[in-house]
Write a structure and sequence with these properties.
Elements: H1 5-20, H2 28-33, H3 53-69, H4 75-88, H5 100-111, H6 114-129, E1 143-144, E2 151-152, E3 157-159, H7 161-177, H8 180-197, E4 208-210, H9 223-239, H10 246-266, E5 273-274, E6 284-285, H11 286-301, H12 310-321, H13 343-347, H14 355-370
Antiparallel strand pairs: 1-2, 3-4, 5-6
């Protein structure tokens, strides 16, 4: 494959620059009229300034590229982002507003700001003791309310997104402060999400589960939902630095490897994956594909996946690079996607440049820079 480190570094710089300056769409009013949240339009999901999950994933992508480059290029930007948001006032605590803290936890290793530390500690305590729970104690996928006011409880529901949005942060804090209660709670949540969202027949993950009726909603294998696991679970495992109980680690990685095998078979000719993984009539989607590629590349690098996955990862990487515009905009990214009861719900979600499209692409390119093969010099 005709990819080299020079091209990857140039693309990373462009994508990050665009992320830092990604504005809101000009036709917000028109999108609200033409479907609103039914097509994925949530005003909070655009730009880089809001304290929400798209921005939080973006911050994490920027922090990861600094770690891969061993640089402090974006430190001032990240520090100012947190200072400005805390000064402005933070939104309601929920699963999705937790993800910015994943970056803040590590960022504060450099700044040692007591206000940053207090926020991370208070929020962790809230996750463990005050976040609404489902039956059997699962993290209920509470999100921000419409218009950013209050919360949507999504009572008794678990979503695959939660592992990336909240459980990664909980585990990171447990590792940092050596708190077994927090680490064990994160393990419980990972195993519980696998139990209720993993499909044994395919190796893929459903978008969600509800204890109200005991079902997986439309039983849809959503691309970005699956990708939160593909990438997020290896981020999770890596945080333990070898200390995770071997039996628990085996159970988790068996699910990851089964999913990776299924994803390899479902990859399209372009190298991308469809927004409904097993529905070739659904559009190909870049943010989920980027996280899948990042997760597969990471699996190869860590020795979890064998060499048979190299061609899949390389084709996926080329598909992503082909969807980066000259100004660094990542194309063909689906907007915010709530749980749906049928395939049409997912197919109707609009496509727009989004912060998480930029950031998941950054993470894929960062992993590619680590990747050792003859095709990347």
């Amino acid at each position: 494959m005709d990819v080299n480190k020079k091209e990857l570094k140039e693309k990373v710089a462009l994508v990050i620059e665009k992320l830092m300056n990604l504005g809101k769409p000009e036709n917000e009013e028109e999108m609200e009229k033409n479907g609103g949240k039914e097509i994925g339009f949530f005003e909070r999901d655009f730009g880089i300034g809001e304290w929400e999950w798209p921005q939080g994933v973006g911050l994490y992508g920027m922090f990861k590229i600094m770690k891969s480059e061993q640089s402090d290029t974006y430190m001032k930007f990240l520090h100012k982002w947190f200072v400005d948001n805390m000064k402005k006032g933070l939104p309601s605590r929920n699963i999705n507003t937790t993800v910015p803290l994943l970056t803040l936890c590590d960022l504060n290793d450099s700044y040692q700001d007591p206000e940053f530390e207090k926020l991370c500690l208070d929020w962790t305590d809230w996750l463990v003791h005050d976040l609404p729970r489902t039956k059997e104690g699962g993290f209920q996928h509470v999100t921000s309310g419409d218009g950013g006011i209050g919360v949507s409880l999504n009572e008794n529901q678990m979503w695959i997104d939660t592992l990336f949005m909240a459980v990664l942060f909980l585990n990171r804090m447990g590792q940092k402060y050596e708190k077994e209660e927090w680490i064990n709670e994160s393990i419980r949540q990972v195993l519980m999400h696998i139990k209720y969202l993993y499909d044994k027949k395919t190796g893929l993950f459903y978008h969600g589960w509800t204890f109200d009726g005991n079902h997986n909603f439309g039983e849809i294998f959503w691309c970005r939902g699956n990708s939160w696991f593909t990438l997020g679970i290896l981020e999770y495992i890596e945080m333990f630095k070898g200390s995770l109980n071997p039996a628990v680690k085996t159970v988790i990685l068996d699910a990851y490897k089964a999913q990776a095998a299924a994803l390899k078979e479902l990859q399209s000719e372009s190298g991308l994956w469809h927004t409904i993984l097993d529905d070739p009539d659904s559009y190909e989607e870049v943010s989920g594909s980027a996280a899948i590629v990042a997760g597969i590349l990471k699996g190869i690098r860590l020795g979890i996946l064998d060499d048979s996955y190299r061609e899949c990862a390389e084709r996926g990487l080329r598909g992503i690079l082909d969807n980066i515009a000259d100004d660094g905009t990542v194309l063909n990214v689906s907007a915010g996607t709530g749980i749906g009861m049928n395939a049409e719900h997912y197919k109707n979600i609009m496509i727009l440049p989004m912060a998480y499209g930029q950031s998941l692409t950054i993470m894929a390119l960062a992993e590619a820079l680590f990747y050792e093969s003859k095709s990347i010099a």
